[in-house]
Design a protein that fits this description.
By secondary structure, the protein is an alpha/beta fold. Helix content is 43%, strand content 16%. An eight-stranded parallel barrel has the order 1-2-3-4-5-6-7-10. Helix 8 packs parallel to helix 9. It binds magnesium ion.
C-alpha cells in the first residue's frame, strides 16, 4: 500500500458511515467498516460483502464494533451506554465482540477497533475488571491474527496510555480521532497525537469545533466538514508525518441523516487530503 491512501468510514446496515457505493464513486481505495448487525455477520454474508468490495476496488483496513443500546445523544448518555465500560452489558458485549473479530477474519481484515467507553478511574474494581475483559478479548483477537485499536476521545491521552499499559498486551493499539478530543473536550488533539503517536496504527480524518469553555466536557462540541473545524488539518498531517504514520487517511463524517451533504462533504475532504498529501507527504 502506498503512503497515506485515502479512506472513508463505511456502514452496511449499522453505524453512521456511508455505503460502499460512495467509496467506489469517489474512487477511495480503503475503508473502515462499521460491523453489520449480527444477522449479516455470517460467513456467507461476509463473503458476499468481500466480493462486492473487491469489485469496487476498496480494501477494508479496520472493522469497527458497535453495540445495540449505544447512544451518542449527549456526553452523559455516551458515558452510560457506550462500549465495554457499562457493567450491565460488559460480558454480553465482550462475547459479541469476539463474533465481530471472527467476521473481520471472514473479510480478510487484520484489525478490529472499539469505542471501549469512558474508562473509569484506575482505583476502582470496575477498572480492574475492564482490564481483565480487555485481555480476554485481546487473546481472541490474537488467535485470529489481529490487532485491536481503541478509538480516542473519551479519555485524555494520559488516561488512555495508562489503561493500555495496565492491559499490557502487544496487540493493543490506537485509532486516533482528532475531532473526538475536541467533541468530548478531552484535550488538544495535536498534543495528544504527539503523546500517543508510538501506538497510533489507524486514524480518522474528522473535524470539529470546541464547545464553549464553560460547558466543555459536559456538552458536545460541533462536528464540521473536514478543514472547517479546530483540528487544523495541515498541522494534523504534518504531525502524522512526524510520528511516522504512513497508513490510510480515513475520512469520517457523521451526518447520516443528510446523505447528500455527507457525500458532498466527503468528496471535498478527499480533495483536501489529496492536496495536503501532495504538499506534505
Ligand atoms: Mg472516529
Amino acid at each position: 500500500m502506498s503512503k497515506w491512501p485515502i479512506g472513508v468510514f463505511t456502514s452496511v446496515d449499522a453505524g453512521l458511515g456511508v455505503h460502499l457505493e460512495v467509496a467506489q464513486e469517489l474512487k477511495v481505495p480503503t475503508m473502515h467498516l462499521h460491523a453489520p448487525h449480527v444477522e449479516n455477520r455470517t460467513r456467507a454474508a461476509a463473503e458476499a460483502f468481500l466480493k462486492k468490495a473487491k469489485a469496487a476496488g476498496v480494501e477494508t483496513t479496520v472493522v469497527f464494533s458497535g453495540f445495540e443500546g449505544e447512544t451518542y445523544e449527549s456526553i452523559q448518555r455516551t458515558a452510560e451506554t457506550v462500549g465495554l465500560v457499562p457493567e450491565a452489558t460488559r460480558a454480553a458485549r465482550a462475547a459479541e465482540f469476539r463474533g465481530i473479530s471472527d467476521f473481520a477474519t471472514y473479510i480478510g481484515c487484520s484489525v478490529v477497533a472499539l469505542h471501549i467507553g469512558f474508562v473509569p478511574d484506575s482505583s476502582t474494581a470496575s477498572y480492574r475488571n475492564l482490564i481483565e475483559t480487555t485481555r480476554s478479548l485481546l487473546d481472541h483477537v490474537k488467535m485470529n491474527g489481529q490487532n485491536l485499536h481503541l478509538e480516542t476521545g473519551q479519555e485524555s491521552a494520559d488516561h488512555l496510555l495508562h489503561f493500555i499499559a495496565d492491559v499490557g498486551r502487544d496487540n493493543l493499539f490506537i485509532n486516533f480521532d482528532p475531532a473526538n478530543m475536541i467533541l468530548y473536550g478531552t484535550g488538544n488533539p495535536i498534543e495528544a497525537l504527539k503523546q500517543v503517536g508510538h501506538l497510533v496504527r489507524s486514524i480518522h480524518c474528522k473535524d470539529a469545533k470546541w464547545a464553549a469553555p464553560a460547558v466543555r466536557g459536559k456538552e458536545w462540541g460541533c462536528e464540521t466538514p473536514l478543514g472547517e473545524g479546530d483540528v487544523g488539518m495541515e498541522t494534523f498531517l504534518r504531525t502524522l508525518k512526524e510520528i511516522g504514520y504512513t497508513g490510510p487517511l480515513t475520512i469520517e463524517r457523521e451526518i447520516p441523516q443528510d446523505p447528500v451533504r455527507q457525500k458532498a462533504d466527503i468528496g471535498k475532504a478527499v480533495k483536501l487530503l489529496e492536496d495536503l498529501r501532495a504538499k506534505i507527504g
